[in-house]
Write a structure and sequence with these properties.
2 copies of one chain form a homodimer. By secondary structure, chain A is mostly helical. In chain A, 78% of the residues lie in helices and 0% in strands. Chain A is globular, with a radius of gyration of 19 Å. The interface between A and B is large, with 56 and 56 residues. The structure holds a DNA duplex (30 and 30 nucleotides).
Chain lengths: 202, 202
DNA sequence: CGATTTGTCTACCGACCGGTAGACAAGGCA
DNA sequence: TGCCTTGTCTACCGGTCGGTAGACAAATCG
């Protein structure tokens, strides 16, 4: 047994937990099934995380960091306000493509209440501030429709996350539309929608 | 014991179930706590609904009918495309104001997968068709930005429902903002956002 | 080499949850 | 009046879940 264990196990468990919390909800996913999926017994999982809630917190922080890294990478080298908005949305959709349960987990985190969600949001706070300042600048320079920048950011968030998580609704509204192609269609749609909504009134 | 029971009990149970399914999720809410909340034993609830899933289906149909009635009432007498869109959004926000768990329940229904969500959506199908046709007309007459009307309806849905259900996110993004005043702010924001997004490109 | 830490396991417990069986009382009906 | 349906209850069962106790083996370190 190579003593490389430790951290690696931890991250594997967290990844699987995000997967199952996203798919089945916090209550719906059992630590037993998470442990089994990682190829380990429940008690081994409890060795790394003292209880289910601690596992959740680890997932929230990990998810925040992952999303933060994605967004930071997307912003690199982008200068204009529209390039940035587009890059962030594209980055988030890319993350959703390679990790479909990720947006569902974030939504579940929000459902669990502010206490849980803040664990996730705190990691992203610097980016949140940057985004609001940036939207404010765009409004000052007349490139973005004037409004409350924080509320705008909230509405943008709901539009993007909703588009990523409401697959059942998509199915009911536009008919069967699944897989990677659907995700690309939705990304394009959200981009057009957001661009139109940001455009200043003449 | 007045023999008025029956239907009234049923609807009371369904209302409470929507409440708890919305607040705690399908898995998180137990039929026992639902029964207790309406002042009855679990076995009495099981007398009306053979099992938990049957209760859920009854909730889905009831929710669909309630939302359908709300939207239909909102549409009455409205002629222009913008009056209609605004009336529907206002109606949905009104429903959310008097029944806060309702949007959460709808989102939970979507989370449970297409099979469950269709029970809810089927009731609303006539309205869905009307909405798409109506958006199409608006595009043909140049009053609405040209795009896929079904995808537009989906994006509008996600924006409205997201704004109603992501309270934790709102808290994290714009700071503490609760109660009826917050709901009104969000309604105004969504209205502005949607109006800007629908506006045709010059 | 021996002591200790690290990691994984088996065995078990108490709580809860969904659902069944069936007693029982009160209203409606022939 | 007496039977039957309707509605509500107590009692219980099997399964799952989160969590504890503690045995045990391999790796590490003085």
């Amino acid at each position: 047994m190579p003593r490389t264990g430790g951290e690696q196990r931890r991250t594997t468990i967290v990844a699987e937990a995000i997967h199952q919390f996203g798919r089945d909800g916090y209550k719906g996913a059992s630590i037993e099934s998470i442990a089994t999926a990682v190829g380990v017994r429940k008690q081994t999982l409890l060795y790394y995380f003292p209880n289910k809630e601690a596992l959740l917190e680890a997932c929230l922080v990990a998810a925040g960091e992952r999303l933060g890294a994605t967004i930071a990478a997307a912003l690199e080298g982008k200068e204009t306000y529209w390039d940035r908005a587009e890059a962030v949305i594209h980055g988030v959709f890319g993350l959703a493509a390679e990790w479909p349960e990720f947006p569902m987990f974030v939504r579940e985190a929000a459902r669990l209440g502010p206490t849980a969600f803040d664990r996730f949001a705190d990691v992203l706070d610097p980016l949140r501030r940057r985004a609001i300042g940036f939207l404010q600048d765009g409004m000052d320079s007349g490139e973005i429709r004037k409004q409350d920048p924080a509320m705008l950011l909230f509405t943008l968030y709901t539009a993007v996350v909703g588009s990523l998580t409401e697959a059942s609704v998509l199915n009911a509204v536009v008919g069967s539309d699944t897989g990677q192609a659907s995700l690309r269609r939705r990304e394009r749609e959200v981009l057009l929608f957001v661009r139109a909504a940001l455009r200043p009134t003449d």
